[in-house]
Amino acid sequence: MSRYTGPACRLCRRESEKLFLKGERCYTDKCAVIRRAKSMIPGQHGASMNMNKTKEYGAQLREKQKAKRIYGLHEAQFKNTFRRADKLEGMAGVNLLVLLERRFDNVIYKMGMAESRKEARQLVTHGHFRINGRKANIPSMILKQGDVISVREQSRRLEKIKFLIDNLDNRQTVRWLDLDRNNITATVTAIPTREDVDFPFKESLIVELYSK
């Protein structure tokens, strides 16, 4: 399946806010959103586009695009996740965000074993992690309470994995993950809630968009 291979910072500029797609770089002065005018949308007509004049459909579309880009999903993947969320009990928008948080690649990122979700997806695909001791290389897997994520023994010798392990103490984990820094494992102790989503999504706009 194809992936967006262009500049990640261009996506942030299109949304006129940080989407935190490049890990630690996003927290420094090198961030493109900081270095360039926030209103400078990329493209030939970017300077003339006024985000404040976005109409109802445009606002809904932009919110969906932000969620897609942050979690690294294609349109079909995102739409299927929404359909699954809509069938669950409760509010569809909240269910959607909770399902996205429970994706395997996102859990690896939250665990601190990747500097970005894109990197987490790559590491998962290459088979560097295990779930409950078994091989797992599908980034879209939805983890459940009680699942234990570990690093494959052979992978711990790789320089990249060593670097990530050495810097675990500097990473702040989420409350629904119990991180064992000695054994380099993480246990899903609870299902995340809306309050655990650290980006200020307006999920109601996404629900309105797909409800048309």
Notable traits:
5-stranded antiparallel beta sheet, 3 domains, Ribosomal Protein S4 Delta 41, Chain A, domain 1, about 40% helix, Structural Genomics Hypothetical 15.5 Kd Protein In mrcA-pckA Intergenic Region, Chain A, about 10% strand, about 210 residues, alpha+beta, 9 helices
What can you see in these coordinates?
40% of the residues lie in helices and 8% in strands. With 212 residues, it is an alpha+beta fold. The chain has three domains: 1-53, Ribosomal Protein S4 Delta 41, Chain A, domain 1 (Orthogonal Bundle), CATH 1.10.1050; 57-99 and 198-212, Ribosomal protein S4/S9, N-terminal domain (Ribosomal Protein S4 Delta 41, Chain A, domain 1); 103-188, RNA-binding S4 domain (Structural Genomics Hypothetical 15.5 Kd Protein In mrcA-pckA Intergenic Region, Chain A, Roll). The chain has a five-stranded antiparallel sheet with strand order 2-1-3-5-4, with helices on one face. β4 and β5 form a beta hairpin. The protein is globular, with a radius of gyration of 18 Å.
List the helices and strands and how they pair.
Blueprint: H1 8-15, H2 32-35, H3 56-71, H4 75-87, H5 92-101, H6 104-111, H7 117-125, E1 129-131, E2 134-135, E3 148-151, H8 159-166, E4 177-180, E5 185-188, H9 203-210
Antiparallel strand pairs: 1-2, 1-3, 3-5, 4-5
Helix pairs in contact: 3-9, 4-5, 5-9, 6-7
